[in-house]
Amino acid sequence: YNTLKYVKLIQIRYQIFYRKRSKYRRFTHFNYKYTDRSKANTLKFQKSILSENIFSNTQNDKNFTFLNLSHTFKKEIDWNFSSFGKLWTYNLNYFDYLNQKDILKEDALFLITDFIENIEKNRDGLEPFPISLRGINWIKYLSMNQIKNQSIDDSLYAQYTILMDNLEYHLLGNHLLENGFSLLFGAYYFKDNTYLEKAKEILFLQLKEQILEDGAHFELTAMYHQIMLYRTLDCINLLENNKKIYDEKELLLFLRDTAKSMLGWLFAITYKNGDIPHLNDSTNEIAPVSKELFSYAKRLKIDFEKKNLKDCGYRKFETNRYELVVDVGNIGPDYIPGHAHSDMFNFELIIDSMPIIVDTGISTYESNDRRYLERSTKAHNTVVINDKNQSEVWSSFRVAKRAKIIEFFENEYSVKATHDGYKKEGLFHSREFVAYDEKISIIDKIDSIKSRPYKAIAYFHFHPDVKEIKQTDNEIITSSIILIFKGSINIELVDIHIAKGYNNLSRSKCIKVSFTDKLETQINIIR
User: Fold this and answer.
1) Has residue 59 got a pLDDT over 90?
2) Phi/psi of residue 71, each to 5°?
3) How far apart are CA 161 and CA 88, in angstroms?
4) What gap in Å lies between CA 332 and CA 424, rounded to an integer?
5) Spatial contact of 526 and 479, defined as CB atoms under 8 Å apart
6) 333 cis-preceded (ω within 30 degrees of 0)
7) Which of 29, 196, 208, 239 could make an SS bond with 187 (beta carbons 3.0 to 4.6 A apart)?
8) What is the pLDDT of residue 410?
């Protein structure tokens, strides 16, 4: 109930419709056509962003590396390969590798042809999300290499028919946006007015809703923000260079304005070393990095200004020595919190461009104990009370009852907020961050409306590169910071794992500070 009550009616309507339609189609033995006569255009593009080297062909062994897991297909490619989980299978079917620097033309055409020859047996690859990404990648590759192949075009046109029939209104969010971006590419490639009108409908409505006033993508993960910005820039590239097919002035202006806003937010949230905070579902080596996106925007002649972080719920304090990003916002958006974590008042600390106190990150989307841990409150730099999560995260992408900010105050050097995630326990957690030139003060306070004992623990997770951590009675000393804790406390230094990426865990340390009523943490920057 506490999950479904936030869901939009359109999501429920489409969930019911698609499920009933699926049953009816199984009963009537309905099948899509996998090829459909088409007429395609060769599109023009400026230089985009190259993919990482994720495919190699050695003596006819086809090797793919996604999510830090590699697999070699020695005889034939199993497009349904599922041993590494669904996200790996999705990546296999995205065809991002067509845009890597060193792929040979004969390899690229073999992969596309092999996919087409086995399309009737494909399962995950014919879902609307991989169709969307594959469509963009095929169109970019075919056009940039001036390849005209009728059988490929006919297959792709049929795949777009499947996409149009299965748009992800039941999910919304970045999934529906990807559908819209891809339909825009399909519209120009096939000069299809139906695709064009649907793409415009989705992009105008969804980008207005999904991009907040401060430029953030509303799922509040810097990684997905980078991906959505990349798609927006690609669409600007498409529209700017193919006006002979469609001259969409209003859409182009809208996309450019949207990109400016998104670039301004990304510039504000990105650390000086080029990394992004790993708040919510964010990690490395998935999206184009910020530097690549800024360079791409420059090639497209898109100027932007740094945004003030506000609507996203994040705040950033900077000095010559450190960067402090804090999360003082609600889980969002309410109706699709699939990439949200139970992490209110979480923070990351970078000193001299080196990560020191960090989010534990994400290593999997599979529904397992590790996924649950990585979304839990104790996996973040905040306070856990009575061993419970602030918000009820469950399954891989679900949130039931969720914490809300009930008091908020900020000025140039500090921010203070209170959340009600432990209201059921009769408790309220307040945290204040105060940023000084050479130190940071964090004040945690637990207010109780019931006279009964409770257990409060503040967590501080170190980056794996932080070594030689020493503990005294009320201090933790490292080579870059000294943490001093004041209050009725007990300090414990424990072993943990930090996710450096999907399926990539590294040993590290975490401080657990048990306290009652109030904890004052002073982080002193060592000269």
Assistant:
1) no
2) -145, 140
3) 25
4) 21
5) yes
6) yes
7) 196
8) 97
The 3-state secondary structure of 430-478 reads EEEEEECCCEEEEEEEEEECCCCCCCEEEEEEECCCCCCCEECCCEEEC
Dump the DSSP string for 130-197: HHHHHHHHHHHHHHHTT---HHHHHHHHHHHHHHHTT--TTT-HHHHHHHHHHHHHHHHHHT-HHHHH
Q: Please, are residues 293 and 225 in contact by the beta-carbon 8 Å criterion?
A: no
Take residue 429 and report the two structure tokens written for it. Answer: 């957690």
* Residue 97 and residue 103 in contact, taking contact as beta carbons nearer than 8 Å: yes
Is the pLDDT score of 297 beyond 90?
Answer: yes
Category of 29 on φ-ψ map: left (φ > 0), alpha (ψ -120 to 50) or beta: left
The Cα 201–Cα 15 span in angstroms is 21
Do 174 and 182 form a contact (C-beta atoms < 8 A)?
Answer: no
CB 225 within 8 A of CB 285: no
456-489: per-residue pLDDT in tens?
Answer: 999 999 999 998 899 988 999 999 999 999 998 8
Angle between helices 150-164 and 128-144 (to 10 degrees): 150
Residues 6+ positions from 320 with CB-CB distance below 8 Å: 437
- pTM to 2 decimal places: 0.97
What the block records as the tokens of 465 is 């590169």
Give 454's contacts (C-beta < 8 A, 6+ positions apart): 385, 386, 425, 427, 446, 448
Q: Is the pLDDT of residue 200 over 90?
A: yes
Task: Number of helices (H) and strands (E) in the chain: give both, helices first.
Answer: 11, 21
What burial letters (b/e) apply to 13-50, b meaning 16+ CB within 10 Å? ebeeeeeeeeeeeeeeeeeeebbeebebbebeeeebbe
The whole-number pLDDT of residue 425 equals 93
Tokens 């600007």 correspond to 236
3 state SS of 99: helix
Name which of 287, 311, 329 is nearest 214 in CA terms. 311
| pLDDT, tens digit, 9 for 90 and up, residues 203-257 | 999 999 999 999 999 999 999 999 999 999 999 999 999 999 999 999 999 999 9
DSSP lists the bridge partners of residue 447 as 428
The predicted structure's pLDDT at residue 146: 96
**Are the C-beta atoms of residues 462 and 356 closer than 8 Å to each other?**
yes
Q: Which long-range contacts (CB under 8 A, 24 or more apart) does 103-111 make?
A: 103/55, 104/57, 105/145, 105/147, 107/55, 107/57, 108/141, 108/145, 109/147, 109/149, 111/55, 111/62, 111/77
| pLDDT at residue 451 in the model | 78
Of 487, 485, 483, the C-alpha closest to 524 is 483
**pLDDT by residue (tens digit) across 499-517?**
999 999 999 999 999 999 9
Distance separating alpha carbons of residues 234 and 125, to the nearest angstrom? 22
